[in-house]
Amino acid sequence: MRYGYSVLLAVGLLAACSGSPQGLQPQVAAGPEVAVEKTANPGFTRVYTWTIAKRVTDPADALLLAPGQAYRVEYAVDLVGTPTDRDFQVEGTVTIKNTGVGAVVLKAPTDTLSTGEAVHLSCGVDFPYTLAEGASLVCTYSQTLPDGKPRTNTVTVPWGTDGTSFPHTASAEKAFAFQEPSQVVDGSVTVSDPSATPTQATSGVSPEGVITQTHLFERWVRFDACGEYEVENTATFTTHTTGTQGSASATVKVTVPCQGGCTLTQGYWKTHSRYGPAPYDATWAGIGEDTPFYLSGQSHLEVLWTPPAGGNAYYILAHQFIAAQLNVLNGASTTPAVDAALAWADQFFQTYKPSDPLSKAVANQAKGYASTLDAYNNGLAGPVHCSE
C-alpha cells in the first residue's frame, strides 16, 4: 500500500510540471519589420497687382468761388490689389525605420502624387540598402507643381532580408492643400498725395484674397484774382516688395467771376473770420470782426454768432445785413432792391438796440428786408451763389 501511494504522488507531480503557468502565453519569436513615416509641406507665392483710381467727392461739379474764398476739396483714392498664385511646390521627408529583429534590405522607394507626378527622393545612399536593426533612413524631397490642386503624397518601400528578393512593402501617405501662401509679393502699398492731406483710410479682403482700399484726402483751394482755373490732384501708390508705382489724377474746374461776382451766406462769413474755424477770408479786413456793430454793444462777429432767440427781428436782419456787406466788399454786384434793403437796415441799426421793443410794423419790415438780403446772399436775387 505504501508503494502504490508513492507512485500516484510522482505521477501527479510530473503532470503539474508539464503544464503552462496560468495566464501566460507561449513566446513567439519576433521577426523583421519596416515602418515608414512621411511629411508634406506645401508652399506657393502670391503676387499682387495693383490698380488705382481717384475721384472728387466734394464738390459734385465745378466750383464757383469769390476772390479770396477758400474751399475744401475732398478726394477719394480707390485701390484694388488682385492676387496671382504661382510657384507651387511641396517638400518634406520620408523616414524609413527598421522596427523588427535583425537587418533588412531596402529597395529604392517610390513616391507619387495623386495627380500622377513622380517625386524624386534624395536618400543619400545607394539601393539596395541594408538597414540595421533599430536604424532609420531619412530621405528628403522638393517637388514643383503646375497648380494649386489638393493632393495626396504616397511613398512605398519594397524590402526583404536576403538582398535578392523584396517580398514585403511598407508605405505611408500624406494629404496636403494649398491654403496660405509661403511668400507674398507686393501685398501692401503706401499711398501718397503731396498736395493734399490724408483724413481716413479703410481696407478689406475678399474670400478670394482681393484687397480693396479707399484713402480719403482733402485740399483747400483759393484764388485771389478772377478767371478760369483747373486744380489737378495726383495720388501715387508704391508697393512694399518691388517698389512698383502707379498714379491717378482728378481735376476740379474753378471759376472766379470777373463780372458781378458771386455771393456767400452768413453761415460762411461767420466761420471764415480770423477766429476760424475755417480758413480766414481777408474780406473781413474791410469791416473788422471786432468792430462794434452800431448800438448793439457787440462786435460784428459776436452779432453773427448770436441766435435770434424768439424770432428777434434785430438779429434776423443783422445776420443777413453783415453777410450782404461782406459780399459787396468781396466784389458781388447788387440790385436796386438789395441797395434799398441795405440802406433801410443801416438806418434801423442806427436807431435800435437788440433789446428795444419793436412795433409790429417795424418788426415785419425788418424781417421783410432780411428776406430780401437772404435771397441775395443765397444767389436767388442778383449774382449767382458761390460754392460753399
Automatic annotation (TrEMBL):
It comes from the Bacteria. Residues 189-206 have a biased composition (Polar residues). Residues 187-206 are annotated as: Disordered. Residues 1-23 form the signal peptide. Keywords: Signal. This is Lipoprotein. It comes from Thermus thermophilus JL-18.
